[in-house]
Amino acid sequence: MAEAASLNEFLDENGGVRVFRDGVRVYNYGERAAGDDWLGLDQRRVNIPTRRISNNIILGAVDVSLEASGNPQHGLIEKTNREGFVENEAYAKFKAIVLGALIEFENLRQEDKERIKSILKTPSEKAIGDLTDPINALRDELEKRKLSEALGNHLKAIERKFNEMKEVMTHSGNAGLNLGILFHEIDRGVKGLTNDIRRKAPADELLSRAEHLSQLLDGFSTLLRKDKKKKQRIKTILRESKLLNDNRFVAHDVVFSCPPLVAEQDDFEVNVSFGMILGALSNLIDNAIYWLQVKWPENSEDRKRRAIYIGTTDYFEEGPAIVVADNGVGLPWIPARY
Q1: What's the domain count of the chain?
Q2: By residue range, what is the domain housing residue 140?
């Protein structure tokens, strides 16, 4: 805070755009002590404070040469008291050029501000999405096929759980979670169930899909809970991770292999926060899917070769561990030099 205060104090005294000719200062341009605002920056900022630059937030300098600008009839002519230029046509053009460069700088600065804001902003209603239309479409299909009685309660549960999760996301500032991915997975699940109803899938298949979607929402809710560390079975964690990402594996043509879930590798117990380790696994899977798409793009004939592996190992001296691997681009191998 002290450093920020010192910087603000320095800018209050020294900020602005100064003018030099052949390296020699031309006064009083940029002289804050004299209250100079030769470009009218402070007045411009009053009108649009969030976008414009004022003198107290910029350190600038313009260097012109006497040979190029000092024409005694049409150039920049210094006043007899050596305090600035005569305000002729050349001076007006000079101001316009400098102000034009600053406007371009303001535009680039605004783009950067918006990028930073989009990265640092907390979750919002818009970021998380809205299931109103997909839910209503699903409800209409249930009524058309007279399935409201069989699946209506599941639909209400799905809608309630999603709204609860959305409320938590909006107000708890879970910036570390990829909220867009969570929403799109649920949105895909609701629309998939709607399409199954339209193609007149068997009732037991519809019921199974609705239950899966409800479980998916339960899993996402686990990611939001700040649970304390306690003993967990790795197999339970991996099973939940698979449930959360099953739809994504199908959507992206990813072959998923997890030997511990079929008893082909050892299970073990760890003392962890269930939600945190589940979130960590989800982030690793996000990265894996991204790099798989880089190696085999959507229009590639080999996209079905995408694969993700999650297993366990007792290789490390510290104890058993989880191994997450994919057959994407990987990291370049650089031989060690001694």
Answers
A1: 3
A2: 122-225
